[in-house]
Amino acid sequence: MTARAPAPHPVITFIVRRLIATVFLLIVVSMITFAIFFLLPRLAGQTTRGLASQYIGRNPTPAAVHAIEQQLGLDAPLPVQYGRFLRGIVLGEHFNAGTSKAYCPPPCFGYSFKNQQPVWPMMVSGLPVTISLAAGAAILWLVGGVAIGVISALRRGTLFDRFSMGVALAGVSLPIFFTGLIALELFSYKWPIFPNVQFVPFTQNPLLWARNLVLPWIVLAFLYAALYARLTRAGMLETMSEDYIRTARAKGLPERTVIFKHGLRAALTPIVTIFGMDIGLLLGGAILTEVTFSLHGLGLFTVEAIQNQDLPEILGVTLLAAFFIVIANLVVDVLYAVVDPRVRR
Amino acid sequence: MRTRKTIGLAAIGAAAALALAACGGSGGSGGSGGGGGTATKASFNAGVTHVVNPSNHKGGTLNFASSSGIPDSADPGNTYYAQMWNLTRLYAMPLMTYASCPGPCGLKVVPDLATGPGVVSNNGLTWTYHIQPNVHFEDGTLVTSQDVKYAVERTFDRSKFPLGPGYYPSLLAPQNATCAKAMAAGKTTGCYPGPYVDRSKNLMGLNAVQTPNSTTVVFHLAKPFADFNYVTAIPQSAPVPPNKDTGANYQLHPISTGPYMFQSYQINKQLTMVPNPHWNPATDPNAKQLPSKIVLTFNVNPNDVDNRLLAGDIQVDLPGTGVQAAARTKILTSNSLKAQSDNPVSGFEWFMTLNNKVPPMNNIHCRMAVEYAANKTNNQTAYGGPYAGGTIGSTAAPPNVVGQKHFDLYEATTKSQGDLTKAKQQLQACGHPNGFSTGITYRSDRPKEVSVAQAMQAALARVGIKLTLHGFPTASYTSNFAGVPNYVHSHDLGITVYGWAPDWPDGYGEFYYIADGAAISPVGNTNLGELNDPLVNSLLGKFATENSATVRNSYTSQIDMQIMKDAAFLPIVYAKALLYRPSNLTNVYVQPFYGMYNYAVLGLK
Amino acid sequence: MPDTLLDVADLRIHFPTSDGLVKAVDGISFSLERGQTLGIVGESGSGKSVTSLGIMGLHHGTNAQITGHIKLDGEELVGATPGRVRELRGSKMAMIFQDPLSSLHPYYTIGAQIAEAYLVHNQVGKKVAHKHAIDLLGRVGIPQPASRADDYPHQFSGGMRQRAMIAMALSCDPELLIADEPTTALDVTVQAQILDLIWDLQQEYHSAVIIITHDLGVVAELSDDILVMYAGRMAEYGSAEDTFDQPGHPYTWGLLASMPRIDEARLERLVPIKGTPPSLINVPSGCAFHPRCRYAGFTGGRSQTEVPELREVSPGHLAACHLTGDQRRKFRTELVLEETEASTARMTQGEA
Q: Chains C vs B: touching, with 3+ CB pairs under 8 Å?
């Protein structure tokens, strides 16, 4: 028998394989974003000249439009522009600021058409806000939603169940910009419990950080908590009628153990999947919350990028969002294997 | 033009008093509308004619907020927005500026960095400015004429500074014979490329601007341009020290010559300014240094901006376009809140152009039929009514352009629902007694323009004119659709919804781009009605050499009248905004050229 | 003297629903001694599972109304505190369920699930409990129990899962073991192994066993007594010999006819009872079985009106039927002849 190197742990090969696929996926996403930005308007009759004239003041001369076309690189064929973009991410990019050449180290997502500033640092500076918002809200909605769902399921048909499910229905159907404005109106202006909401970095003052984020957390979490409460309730109801719950009871386990160790554990599995996906897709909710509460995170950055038709910014934020979604998917898959032994091979 | 307030430059002209009368009286205690600095107690529209809460009290943090970021750039050389031209006066001193006073006084251009208005040579080709000898940058360096020349040079680099106006490259004498030839062909070969490409002569390579000594700047023009003092009142003439210029990054920290300087600036997030220790009030009578800190917060939810304004958390809404619908209701229904608000003319006029080339609209009678048939009240409602929309317009220029006179050829104000009898008569004369079909273009992402297009569709249907709706995105409106005459002709788009505010408040600034035959261009056209009236063209041409204010004013009203006689414009409203001034704000008044509060002089109680 | 472990008397388990009162169990009485096996037989819906869950106290938390008596080793369980019943559950009485795959928690290892039952009733550490679980797995015939204890249910075969279930039930040496359809989900060869296992373990532990099944064949060899249930009521109750040799109720005859015979080909084993089990909300009047009973016409209408009482058809052998002893003997003889003929006919055809 020949000695063989020990095979890498299957989870590690799985993760590596997925990461490689992620790179390809991100390339495809960037190509699609590129195509949507350039090709679709072109089908509708837009010209490079027209695009360039959006980044220029009123009544531009043709020479000025041409200058900006060159500056933004719009005069090159699309594949070349795309190639430049990819090269910037891998190798970085040199930008002519006029008085000097600035170097934008990798991953360089290019320079904003409008602000003429590198996209990456602008994007990264919004991350702490969005992550603070997302993390707090996620914990809140997960704990709150699951707790309400469990209680509702165990007290099915009671006043609590009906009330919380009614509120949950409202939560699922009410848009953030509505609940957000109501929350602001009530708790920031009428009764100024949380006045003048603005982001304070956690490192600067954790207390103020939390205090300022309470309203956004609640508003963002409300939407999801409602969904999770309904999901948990349905999951618990289903799980608690499973045969293995009867087995657990037949063993003489205390009801608490039956509910939490046997019932909730199984009911949580689909929640974990959805939670992972929701975290990845959270940018959508973050956009609305950040706009409502004027928090300068990735969400507002996205809105700004789209309003300005700023391709490098749009590409940057699209890729970052895609990256988060893919990573969240990966984490969900790994987590799923941890949670549910049946998935393991 | 991109966003609603893109180039919101306006001036309340001589007719400011008239506009006031139209919106319900000023309520000011003093009778003096001019002069400047007449103080008054807080009442509705008091800030339009008077300084509210005059005070020299120092201290406090002045908070601005905006529902967007800085619309283009904080670099005085790269901005084309009224709010920024207003704001830059806090940190930049151009050669000329608009007088810091309410009412008609405020639309005069007065020297700022310069010691007096530019002196023009007899042939009209040379303008000479002397600058104050004792103005310093924030780092203590003395400002020289070379810093002004360098600032002008920067504007030639359109790839670094595409967002500001392009007057210097087009007005100044060509760098050399090659450039002169190229310019005639609409190119820039051989022309001065800006100081980043041309590093010659110690960065002083632009031939058309000379600095014979450290306090004199001489501009050599290609052709006479009597409006040049208006051009140097654009922030682009504010000095930039060549050794401190950081090109595209200068916007992050422009070197201040005004009362405040940048402390920190995160694009789209926050800008903090602190007093400039090297600023001398004696050299800058147009600005004050009262608050101990100025903070601008960007991207605040529009409704939240209003709430913070009403709650006193912020003092100024930077764009100056007025409060949202919710706050508007709150303010107008409360006597005390209303007394703390102003409803000035913003400087914009919203109008429709009736195309001179698209049949059957090429027949003047068909255009007149549209003029009569339109329901002006419904059009006004589409724009938000009398407070948020504005006053129904009947002239091509808004009342705040110097020289504008009121007239009403098509009964816009007397029969504002439309005159169907006259409309039908005109249709008869046009040869389409039963009406015709044409298209209307508008910006589909602007609800007001969508509404007005629908209102027009309903109004014109009353006389058998069938209007088809063609909405396009703002971003590509003039670059790809309404501003491309070929597209307009091939799609039979007879009516175009548009708006305009002049770069400076006279007939030339108002009309050149939107009514001169020479301004018609195949792409990015702004003369959307393709008006090419010889009288209008020749009058606009005469502005260049005419220095007499009386004569210039008569040109303005003549052009206005001629455009309306041609039925080339269908005015909608002279735009207005409802502004709120918190009670703790001092020295508040509407700077008439910007159509918003004068940001250079605000203080706190 | 008889060593009675379980004494059930006049047990009634009713469920109020919006459609009416469901009398899932309606007056059941039996007793069971240590070392003895009782087979409870009936179609689905006859109340046999409800009965066993009632004994285990697993109706707690539902809206079940339970009356009568369940005495386990002299202790009354009807009306006992849920906490007390929980203590007994898993220790003094244990249960094996029908479908071992769905009855085992998919997310925990077999070993952990067995140990859990031991841990909750004994003051021991996790290691001891785990070792105990491995011992039990070995005892129920799982090869390499130490490594298989770390497997999850989905990694076990059907028979092994049921062995694991049995191990779990046995973890605290229960005196009463209820096996609810323990072999239904398994294939035939494994069925026999599992039944053998239960038999062996019963001998070893000397516990009382209740086997619940719809298949008389399952209990034929194992049971000392047989209780046949129909529509929540007792149809027949007696020793296994009596019940098989002289079944006293036409329903039991039907069950016997549907029993697989060793001497016949498998395909031909089923002679199902005509008709469907009654709804428990609208139990037929009189004898609940009368709509399906081909002899109901011989009782002078009593079948339709009068609920038959349990009567001794032979000493210690009870049946609830209106037929007289003579009628019963006559009809039973005819039926057996009929079946033999039919069976012979089928065999002849098969040869031709």
A: no
Output the CATH code of domain B39-293+580-604.
Answer: 3.40.190.10
State the residue range of the domain holding C288: 247-351
Contact call for C89 and A251, based on CB within 8 A: yes
Domain ranges of chain A: 10-118, 120-344
Q: Is residue C274 part of a domain?
A: yes
Q: Is C348 on the interface with A (CB under 8 A)?
A: no
For the cut 50, the answer to whether the pLDDT of residue A120 exceeds it is yes
Which of A57, A70, A188 faces B159 most closely, judged by CB atoms?
A70
The CATH classification number of B345-576 equals 3.10.105.10
Instruction: Please report the ipTM that was assigned to this predicted complex.
Output: 0.85
Q: What is the DSSP string of B212-227?
A: SSTTEEEEEBSS--TT
Q: Is B165 on the interface with A (CB under 8 A)?
A: yes
How far B549 CA lies from chain A's nearest CA (Å)? 26
> Could you give phi then psi for residue C331, rounded to 5 degrees?
-60, -35
Name all contacts of C272-276 with Cβ < 8 Å and 24+ positions apart: C273/C43
Task: Measure the CA–CA gap between B522 and B578, rounded to whole angstroms.
Answer: 38
Which residues of A lie closer than 8 Å to C, measured between beta carbons? 242-244, 246-255, 257, 262, 265-266, 269, 339-342
Q: What pLDDT is stored for residue B25 in this prediction?
A: 33
Distance, in angstroms, between A165 CA and closest chain C CA?
22
B45 φ, ψ (degrees, to nearest 5): 70, 10
| CB neighbourhood size of A224 (10 A) | 24
What are B344-394's pLDDT values in tens digits?
Answer: 998 899 999 999 999 999 999 999 999 999 999 999 999 999 999 999 999
**CATH architecture of residue range(s) A120-344:** Orthogonal Bundle (1.10)
The pLDDT value recorded for residue B27 is 34
Three-state secondary structure of B522-558 = CCCCCCCCCCCCHHHHHHHHHCCCCCCHHHHHHHHHH
pLDDT category at C2 given cuts 50, 70, 90 is low
Query: Which range has the worst mean pLDDT, A19-23, A289-293, B200-204, C63-67?
Result: A19-23
Look at residue A5 in the predicted model and tell me its pLDDT: 56
Contacts C56 to A, Cβ<8 Å: 250
CB atoms within 10 A of CB B331: 24
Chain A contact for C99 (CB, 8 A cutoff) = yes
Establish, for the pair of chains A and C, how many residue pairs have beta carbons separated by less than 8 Å: 74
* C85 in any annotated domain: no
Per the domain annotation, does C333 fall within a domain?
Answer: yes
Closest CA to B122 of B232, B237, B233, B226: B226
Q: What is the pLDDT of residue C246?
A: 87
Domain final residue pick, C173, C188, C219: C173
B399-432 confidence digits (pLDDT tens): 889 999 999 999 999 999 999 999 999 999 999 9
C224 Cβ contact list (under 8 Å, min separation 6):
C36, C37, C38, C239, C240
What pLDDT score does A45 carry?
Answer: 67
Tell whether C59 lies on the interface with A, counting CB pairs under 8 A: no
Query: C39 in helix, strand or coil?
Result: strand
The pLDDT, as a whole number, for residue B41 is 66
- Residue C139 belongs to some domain of the structure: yes
When CB atoms are compared, the residue of C90, C102, C107 closest to A250 is: C90
Q: Is C185 on the interface with A (CB under 8 A)?
A: no
**Chains C and A are in contact, defined as 3 or more C-beta pairs closer than 8 angstroms:** yes
Stretches where chain B sits below pLDDT 70 are 1-41
Which residues in chain A are contacts of B6 at CB distance < 8 A? 58
CA atoms within 13 A on the CB side of C319: 22
Pair C344, C255 in one domain: yes
Contacts of C72 in chain A (CB under 8 A): none
Has residue A166 got a pLDDT over 50?
yes
Q: What is the pLDDT of residue C349?
A: 60
Instruction: Give the closest-approach CA distance of C98 to chain A in angstroms.
Output: 9
